[in-house]
Design the sequence.
């Protein structure tokens, strides 16, 4: 993965688990908008929201959704956002060991453009080495100089998903 910081202390991280169903994409968009807004990165919100949406949609479509324990519900998919001085790193973790393949969709195809979109909107993208627990697919978006001074109300270094969802979920639904 690319370096996201120049060594300064301006690194923040937010992570949230989402259910393995189509509603999670819109929830992840709200999570991403809220997080980047709290970091003062409004100019990047639209780009990062599209990237996270495509990463999560790909995980839902192509990832092998394993179940948790005896109750049989699918394991969650994880969305992580890492803000460094120079880059925002968007990551989606799923349970599939299959690596993503960039394909060129036909002119009339209704699907198959997710990675093309990610490639065009990000400075770089890739994935972690798959293992028995799956992999993470990531995309890096450059942060413009002077952009993203954290707002006074932004969360500290780690923004926990539970805290976000319990305390700020009504804001995300707007």
Sequence:
């Amino acid at each position: 993965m690319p370096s996201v910081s120049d060594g300064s202390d301006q690194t923040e991280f937010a992570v949230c688990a989402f259910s393995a169903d189509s509603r999670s994409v819109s929830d992840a968009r709200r999570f991403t908008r809220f997080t980047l807004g709290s970091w003062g990165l409004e100019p990047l919100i639209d780009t990062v929201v599209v990237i996270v949406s495509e990463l999560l949609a790909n995980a839902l479509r192509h990832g092998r959704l394993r179940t948790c324990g005896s109750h049989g519900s699918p394991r969650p998919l994880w969305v992580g956002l890492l803000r460094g001085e120079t880059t925002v790193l968007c990551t989606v973790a799923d349970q599939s060991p299959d690596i993503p393949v960039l394909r060129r969709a036909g002119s009339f195809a209704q699907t198959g453009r997710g990675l093309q979109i990610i490639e065009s909107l990000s400075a770089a993208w890739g994935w972690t080495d798959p293992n028995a627990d799956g992999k993470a697919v990531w995309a890096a978006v450059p942060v413009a100089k002077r952009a993203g001074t954290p707002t006074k109300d932004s969360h500290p270094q780690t923004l926990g998903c539970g805290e976000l969802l319990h305390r700020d979920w009504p804001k995300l639904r707007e």
